[in-house]
Design a protein that fits this description.
This protein is an alpha+beta fold. Helices cover about 45% and strands about 15% of the residues. The protein contains 11 helices and 12 strands. Strands 1, 4, 5, 6 and 7 form a 5-stranded antiparallel sheet that branches. Strands 8-9-10 form a 3-stranded antiparallel sheet. Strands 2-3 form a two-stranded antiparallel sheet. Helix 3 packs antiparallel against helix 4. The protein is flat, with a radius of gyration of 25 Å.
Length: about 325
């Protein structure tokens, strides 16, 4: 997130939002084993990895379906092997002209000649490419990457692989990233905050928990809600999330108050506040107080640049 925010705040205004179709299901076993053999020489380990890939999938009718491609989802080895497969994308961009390996002088020269520069950001099979150039440059890079991924048996989704300008904004890893004008000024900054989908997810979890039996004490409900709200806000703390945190705060308050009113039909506001809010407005039961997302202070992702060691620097 820091990489994207750092570069899109400069001249990298076009973003290729990559989406790999059925990533874990379509990785070529032959291409994957070829990359593993380039780093691992122990034949016993290679045999175990190959046996793992070829183990098959047990259907509900107890028949075994052979696996000719892909890595079994849910296993402890699949995330590692998928990263090995997708490292073709990292290596291609790292060594391509205009990529992260290009010197500053070369990038300036390319810019003077109207050639694009670009930087990648990838987390597992979610990736995007920020481009300093034109939309046409971004389209060419998208097609090049599609060719690179095809060597591993992978395909880009034509419907979900988008080319977006940073002023329009994009969703990446649960966050919305967009350049906007700062209120009260003429300056424009790149902001990151929870996406609409992320907000819907947390409010859905709150709603499910507030549908449980009203025979339970309020303390039991709050003990289920608090870890959800605390974990969600901790995850989205880095960014401009203060306004977004106010939404689950208000939503959760309404859901809990409705739960209390279902528990005690006809209860007056005065009685409700006395019994469940300590004569205030915030729900609590004894020492258990409802977590307040709106009180969480936000921070920022710190851009570290080349201080993060690259695992590919010593690869020939």
């Amino acid at each position: 997130m820091a990489e994207i925010r750092h570069f899109t705040s400069r001249s990298y205004e076009w973003v290729v939002e990559g989406d790999i179709k059925a990533c874990f299901d379509e990785i070529s076993h032959a291409a994957l084993m070829g990359r593993v053999r380039a780093r691992v020489g122990d034949k016993r380990v290679l045999a175990l990895v190959k046996a793992f890939l070829k183990a098959g999938v047990l259907r509900e009718d107890r028949t075994l379906r052979e696996t000719d491609a892909g890595t079994p989802q849910g296993s402890i080895l699949s995330p590692l092997l998928s990263n090995v497969a997708l490292s073709v994308l990292d290596e291609y961009i790292a060594h391509a002209p205009g990529g992260p390996g290009t010197s500053r002088n070369d990038r300036l020269t390319r810019r003077r000649h109207g050639l694009p520069n670009y930087r990648p950001a990838r987390y597992a099979d979610d990736w995007c490419l920020v481009v300093s150039g034109t939309k046409a440059d971004a389209e060419v890079l998208r097609d090049e990457i599609a060719g690179v991924l095809s060597t591993m048996g992978l395909r880009l989704s034509e419907e979900k692989t988008l080319i977006t300008h940073i002023d329009e904004g994009l969703d990446f890893l649960g966050r919305h990233i967009q350049r906007r004008r700062k209120r009260g000024t003429d300056r424009r900054y790149v902001y990151t905050y929870p996406s609409h989908r992320a907000l819907t997810a947390v409010t859905g979890k709150v709603k499910i928990r507030c549908r449980q039996s009203i025979n339970l004490p309020l303390e039991a409900l709050l003990r289920q809600l608090n870890p959800v709200l605390r974990g969600w806000t901790n995850h989205f703390r880095p960014g401009v999330s203060s306004i977004a945190f106010g939404y689950p705060r208000a939503f959760t308050w309404r859901q809990v108050i409705r739960w209390i009113r279902r528990k005690h039909p006809g209860i007056t506001w005065k009685e409700l506040r006395r019994r469940y809010c300590g004569n205030g407005w915030w729900p609590a039961d004894g020492d258990v107080i409802m977590f307040n997302p709106g009180a969480v202070r936000t921070t920022r992702h710190r851009y570290r640049g080349s201080k993060i060691p690259s695992p590919w620097s010593n690869v020939a």
